[in-house]
Amino acid sequence: MTTSISRISRSWIPYAGLLVLFWGVWGAFSAVPTSDYGYPDGMVYVVWSLTMIIPAVAALRGNRLDRRPIAAVYGLLVGLTGAGGQLLLFKALTIGPAYLIFPLIALSPAITVLMATALLRERIPRLAVLGVVAALVAVVLFSVSDGDGSATGGLWLLLAILICVAWGVQAYFMRKAATVGVNDATTFTWMTISGLLLVPVAIWMAGGLALDAPWQAPTLAAVTQLLNAVGALFLVMAFSRGKASIVAPTTNALAPVLTVILSLAVYQKVPSVYATIGIVLAIVGSTLMVYADEKRGEAAAANIAGPRTPDHGAPDVAVR
Questions:
Q1: 36 domain-assigned
Q2: Per-residue pLDDT tens over the stretch 182-208
Q3: What share of the chain is helix, strand, coil (3-state, %, to 5)?
Q4: Among candidates 56, 102, 44, 99, which has minimal Cα distance to 222?
Q5: Reported pTM
Q6: What pLDDT, in 10s, does the model give residues 202-229?
Q7: Exposure of 307 by Cβ count < 10 A (0-12 exposed, 13-18 middle, 19+ buried)?
Q8: By residue range, what is the domain housing residue 167?
Q9: Domain count, the chain
């Protein structure tokens, strides 16, 4: 019996490992179609929005689509903040280093924590407080490390902060959706729809459909963004098999770490001392916030449900 439970409790690890691999590689190479082939970042977004259909269809298999108006409202709020962040992300990656951008946007849980405190009157756990402090210090260090003085240099940092805010707001509304009983499949479907709704904006930003681009550009965009979309599906599968307080901080920390390592190795750039400290603080701070939040959620669920057998499901999955 013990062996069986142990096997179940570890069944999330392969999916989490695949998620880290897919998202880590995606983050490091997402800008290649633009940097190497001049493919507009708006077109990369269009490709991403189409790849999201794959995990959306997979998520709906065996699940019911919630047709309530409240599900649509929260779904659109979650989807538009997530897709808007993606639209800004592809722009940021064309002008800034991925090894700094991804650790910075990984600080989005700080926004979620602060919103929950201000709007829901929730108390911040001590670990989350430490995480927020680390996040603030990391942002300051990233600002100091960005010392090239160019408009482009300042722009990627601003975009990364806006993405961080957008995805923090997204996670907050995702939590609110879960409290009114909206299932993950419905939320993910609305996220996909929202992504498609912003396609005209992306095409406008790209100056047209860029049909004259070399074939390598859309092909590489499709491969990298498919890694992003399928990685989101692996996240859902990992959460359905493991405890959120273990799965969430593990994936939240390791994916940007892999992106940083691959980016530094491939592009052969050495970050400054301030940037290095900022990267470490950003990843540690984000991990502390996610861990504290998930532990609190599990404790609250245990108090409501009373003693029960281990539950390997998760009601809340933050997917971009």
A1: yes
A2: 888 898 899 999 999 999 999 998 888
A3: 80, 0, 20
A4: 44
A5: 0.81
A6: 999 888 888 888 999 999 999 999 998 8
A7: exposed
A8: 12-303
A9: 1
